[in-house]
Amino acid sequence: MSFKFTNERMKNVEELLTHYPADHKQAALLPILWEVQYQEGWISKEAMVEVARICGCTPAHVQEVVTFYTMYNQEPPAKYHLQVCRNICCWLRGAGETTQYLEEKLGIKPGEMTEDRKFKLSEVECLAACGGGPMMQVNDDYQLNLTRESIDKLLKDLK
Amino acid sequence: MEPILTKRFAVSNAATIDGYMATGGYSTLSKLFTMTPAQVIDEVKASGLRGRGGAGFPAGVKWGFVPKTTGKPIYLCVNADEGEPGTFKDRELMTKDPHALLEGIIITCYALESHTAYIYIRGEMFQELQILQRAIDEAYAKGFLGNKVAGHDFKLDVYMHRGAGAYICGEETALIESLEGKKGQPRIKPPFPAVVGVFGCPTVVNNVETLMAVPYIIEKGAAEYAKIGVGKSTGTKLFSVSGHINKPGNYEIPLGLPFSEFLEKQCGGVWKGRKLKAVIMGGSSVPILTAEEAMKVNLDYESLGAAGTMLGSGGMVIMDDQTCMVTALKILGDFYHHESCGQCTPCREGTGWIQKVLARVVRGEVRPGDCDLLLSVATNMQGRTICVFSDALAMPVKSYIQKFRHEFEDAGKLGLRKGQQIQTWE
Ligand SMILES: Cc1cc2nc3c(=O)[nH]c(=O)nc-3n(C[C@H](O)[C@H](O)[C@H](O)COP(=O)(O)O)c2cc1C
Ligand code: SF4
Ligand code: FES
Predict the structure, then answer these.
(1) Which of A54, A84, B94, B386 shows a CA-CA span of 20 to 30 A to A94?
(2) In Å, how far are A41, A127, A131, B117, B164 from B126, measured between CA atoms?
(3) Residue B364 — pLDDT band, cuts 50, 70, 90?
(4) Which band of pLDDT confidence, cut at 50, 70 and 90, is reported for residue B411?
């Protein structure tokens, strides 16, 4: 399996490279990895090799970076990633029960994916939305003040 | 009190450049360009504005450390990595008033003689990233960014830089490493970023809220700003209030307000008519206060310092009288263990130890000497690491155990189980 940026994406990559000094192309590494993930949904070994070539660093360095950060997917993602905040403020407002409820509804534990790859459940750290706890992030969106009813509705709406 | 940072929260189109300009936005720039960069720095110094990211270091003083004659470019990095548990002010500031951040950036870069600013935004904040990018595009289109800022002979480019999930990247030198395309591992200081920062060049890292206070200071003058607040705690500050409170949210208050008054009058008091048990005043990294201690403090740097805690980021977490302090601390132990970057042995091992012991105590398997063990591990984590992340767990551990020791010792008798001690979701 090889990896190639689409022409459209490649334009973004070239633009990103102009944001940093010409002798520090590696600074564009995180943003370019995001471009990979926007295009593919995850970051394959092949993509890492290509990104290393573009940024002028080694594939080993790219892999080190990909694995250090939590948001780069190293496998094809589920359609919907439900990330429940487990940190202190959300816990004070019942995040433990929120997770339990989702576990029951989806039949999976945190860290797992449903068999049809539709849902992945994760517990994550504070998402800077503590005033709306318990809360979770579903793909790019925040869902605040979760209740059983709002979770039921949300899961129904996620087709 | 006249709001400074939140004054456009009620303006529905403030995030657009038209809405922003209709409410006085970008008007300080005409004054700015009649001042010299040194005058701007002096004005911010005189205002007493302190960094709102956690450490509270005077902003103007930090700017004054930047050497301007090295021939190297100077950079501004905006810290929009907000991740300190309990803190959610920067996110709301950026979404509701993004151009005010850009105006603060323009003024700051002019003062620093910097022509490039990066906004390092937390990876999770994708909507916020798009709002800011839209604001940047609008500002370029209207000539507030680019080769001639507001028609003056000053060039400035602002770029968004998206993080990818790592709490430690909020620490300024980790942020710089991450910006350079590396793992976010803090650097040994000195040299400080002001001298050797991103790409080996002089760099200022400032928090979003800090920069958003700057336009007011330039517009109204340092003296007006310094009139607000008390002593060395000048101006207004956002407190993010969460937990067992009737009205969670962000509140802008003049520094120095008594906590008791803030709690009752603005935040609606503890929820469900319950009693206050404890308060985290400035984000999860600061020592906890008991209700009794909290009721005596004022919300400013000095008063909180005198009470043995810190103002930090302004992330205020309210805990009612049914809160289990053992579980609360265990959650922090999990968090810090998960987020340690692993470079320093005392931090990597210490957070691991604390996490393990607390996980056991929460299961009810308490052993004699656990409290002393936790205290001694915490002591060994303090003051001997590259960054203060390690202290940021050690200090809370000590305070929770010192102030609520019996709960830790009795955890076995109380028979804590997952779920049982949580009574709040309905
Ligand atoms: C572990 C750790 C995490 C931090 N996280 C943040 C953060 O998310 N946002 C922030 O502005 N400052 C954070 N800081 C503080 C920064 O290191 C730095 O002091 C701050 O960005 C400087 O800006 P200021 O002077 O305007 O506050 C953190 C510090 C540490 C040690
Ligand atoms: S104290 Fe912890 S987080 Fe900070 S540099 Fe050392 S290991 Fe990393
Ligand atoms: S603790 Fe859940 S968003 Fe902050």
Answers:
(1) B94
(2) 15, 12, 19, 19, 11
(3) confident
(4) confident
DSSP E strand stretches across B58-166 = 75-80, 116-121, 157-162
Write the residue in B118, B122, B249 that is nearest to A131 by C-beta. Answer: B249
Ligand 2: residues whose CB is within 6 Å? B 168, 186, 340-344, 347-348, 385-387, 389-390
Domains of chain A: 7-68 (1.10.10.1590), 80-158 (3.40.30.10)
The pair of three-digit structure tokens given for residue A118, joined into one six-digit string: 């539709």
Of B179, B184, B335, the CB nearest to A27: B179
Give the pLDDT confidence of B239-293 residue by residue, as tens digits: 999 999 999 999 999 999 999 999 999 999 999 999 999 999 999 999 999 999 9
Which ligand number lies closest to the CA of residue B170?
A: 1
The shortest C-alpha distance from B248 to chain A (Å) reads 5
pLDDT of residue A33: 98
User: Are A70 and B87 in contact (CB < 8 Å)?
Assistant: no
Work out the pLDDT band at B414, boundaries 50, 70, 90: low
ipTM of the complex: 0.97
Q: What percent of chain B has pLDDT over 70?
A: 96
B370 CA distance to ligand 2 centroid (A)? Answer: 24
Chain A residue nearest residue B317, CA to CA: A89
A133 lines ligand 3 (CB under 6 A): yes
In contact, B397 and B382? CB cutoff 8 Å: no
* Both tokens assigned to A103: 């576990």
pLDDT tens-place string over residues A83-106: 999 999 999 999 999 999 999 999
Mean pLDDT for B383-400 is: 97
Alpha helices for A19-94 (secondary structure H):
29-40, 45-55, 59-68, 88-92
Domains of chain B, earliest start first: 17-227 (3.40.50.11540), 230-320 (3.10.20.600), 325-409 (1.20.1440.230)
HSE (side-chain half, CA atoms, 13 Å) at A83: 20
> Residues A54-64: what's their mean pLDDT?
98
Q: How far apart are CA A52 and CA A66, in angstroms?
A: 12
Query: Cβ of B91 and A137 within 8 Å?
Result: no
